[in-house]
Design brief:
- With 421 residues, this protein is an alpha/beta fold.
- It is built from 14 helices and 24 strands.
- The strands form six sheets. The protein has a four-stranded mixed β-sheet, covered by helices on one side. It has a four-stranded mixed β-sheet with strand order 2-15-17-16. Strands 4-5-3-14 form a four-stranded mixed β-sheet.
- A hairpin with a 2-residue loop joins strand 4 and strand 5.
- Helix 6 packs parallel to helix 7, helix 8 packs parallel to helix 12 and helix 11 packs parallel to helix 12.
- Bound molecules: ligand EPZ.
- The site of ligand EPZ has 23 residues, from helix 1, helix 5, helix 6 and helix 12.
């Protein structure tokens, strides 16, 4: 397994281009299943998860062409509405094919994703919503079987805010008979990006971005072209890397608009962040102080502080001045980066879903192990500021959600290299 070797102590400077959003691209790739006509996407990031999703769609019969960041998908010959365990176990977001397959083919057989490092990750809300829309859903031998001649409009209420649950049900409802209303819907920008793509395909969705989404079902969707939104979590991750190293970095092709809570906290920590709108391109500029002030956070659904940025903030709090209280309210086990940061000398105490982080003037390089995608990013940030060399093992987690992270960090001056296993 590959590993990253980082020699800390370099102040990041320069310019980095932000890629398309993984968590917008994944549901939007599944939207291709809803039509017989081609869907052309641009700004699709080159990530392992994207590759897995394309493999999953191809084995269903979807034809695809990929050139750089452009992908054209053609689901006219969809003959295998099945998502097998071998693929689903490597990427939980595979569950996003469930709604589109039932809506388009009248049936779906999707492996249960199972849990992952950060939590049990059940999909009961996805199933509850499809059942309410008239699907017959059974769960047997680790697979969700769903059938419906045609889904019908319904009033859906999810027990908790669920991003992919909202996305799955919104896609299913596009071809349903009548109106579907999703209450307590996720408001994440990636849900809005999906809704914009679906509407470009002829769907009739209103309210995306609010907690009540209304979908008027139509008989068929047509092809479209759509540009994937920038990745706000990659944006936040690079802002944290610049902040931790006292750097001065310009991020291009992204916007602060999706990250108010994160930008707010970085400014509380002492950073200056400005955004510039040049014709056709938005950029974000961050200037960080020599030492940050600790900032407490509490994760919650959008627009509050995103859980996907909690690990990265734990890394910056590990070297900030003061003590931060960090509460994780979305997932039950999303502090695994803490024990690895402690190996680098961080002063962190975990009490249930709260972490107390007292900043140290410096961390010491060591060998650490990545456990999940955002935990890996947290260890990279810590390695950038630790004294000496940090070896990060199992970085396949990182490759799932960050496009060429070591190349981008090298351009910013970091001393980082990948060692092939
Ligand atoms: C999405 O996961 C993201 N993944 C996650 O990003 C992100 O952390 C999460 O939303 C929260 O923002 C993608 O978009 C592909 P949820 P998702 O359903 O949809 C519980 C990353 O790092 N729940 O919003 O799976 C669930 O257990 C990944 O890029 C149920 O109980 O998350 C969790 O506690 C990690 N039953 C909470 O709701 C359900 O049916 C929120 O989960 C669904 C969810």
């Amino acid at each position: 397994m590959d590993k990253l070797i980082i020699t800390g102590g370099v102040r990041l400077t320069g310019e980095v281009a932000i890629s398309g959003a993984k968590n917008a691209a994944l549901p939007i790739l599944c939207a291709a299943l809803l039509t017989k006509e081609p869907l052309t996407l641009s700004n699709v990031p080159a990530l392992n998860d994207i590759g897995t999703m394309l493999k999953l769609l191809a084995q269903m019969g979807v034809k695809m062409e990929r050139e750089g960041d452009r992908v054209t998908l053609d689901a006219s010959d969809l003959h295998n509405p099945v998502a097998p365990y071998e693929l689903v176990k490597t990427m939980r977001a595979s569950i996003l094919v469930l709604g589109p397959l039932v809506a388009r083919c009248g049936e779906a057989k999707v492996s249960l994703p199972g849990g992952c490092a950060i939590g049990a990750r059940p999909v009961d809300q996805h199933i509850k919503g499809l059942t309410a829309m008239g699907a017959e859903v059974t769960v047997e031998h680790g697979y969700v079987h769903a059938r419906a001649t045609r889904l019908k409009g319904a009033r859906l209420f999810t027990d908790m805010v669920t991003v992919t649950g909202t996305e799955n049900l919104m896609m299913a409802a596009c071809l349903g008979a009548g109106e579907t209303v999703i209450e307590n819907a996720a408001r994440e920008p990636e849900v809005v990006d999906l809704a914009q793509c679906l509407n470009a395909m002829g769907a009739r969705i209103a309210g995306a971005g609010t907690d009540v989404i209304r979908i008027q079902g139509v008989d068929a969707l047509h092809g479209a072209t759509h540009r994937i939104m920038p990745d706000r979590i990659e944006t936040g991750t690079f802002l944290c890397a610049a902040a931790a190293t006292g750097g001065e970095v310009r991020l291009t092709g992204t916007s602060a608009g999706y990250l108010d809570a994160v930008v707010d906290k970085l400014m509380d920590a002492g950073c200056e962040i400005t955004s510039e709108k040049l014709p056709g391109i938005e950029t974000l500029m961050i200037q960080a102080p020599a030492r940050l002030k600790a900032v407490s956070i509490r994760t919650a659904p959008y627009p509050a502080f995103p859980t996907d940025m909690q690990a990265q903030f734990m890394a910056i709090n590990a070297v900030a001045e003061g003590t931060a209280v960090m509460r994780e309210t979305i997932f039950e086990n999303r502090f695994m980066h803490a024990v690895e940061l402690i190996r680098l000398g961080a002063d962190i105490r975990i009490d249930g879903n709260t972490a107390f982080v007292t900043g140290r003037p410096a961390l010491q390089g060591a060998t650490v192990m990545a456990t999940d995608l955002r935990a890996s990013a947290s260890l990279v940030i810590a390695g950038l500021v630790a004294e000496g060399e940090t070896h990060i093992e199992r970085i396949y987690h990182l490759d799932r959600g960050y496009e060429h992270i070591e190349r981008k960090l090298t351009v910013l001056g970091a001393n980082i290299r990948r060692e092939k296993a």
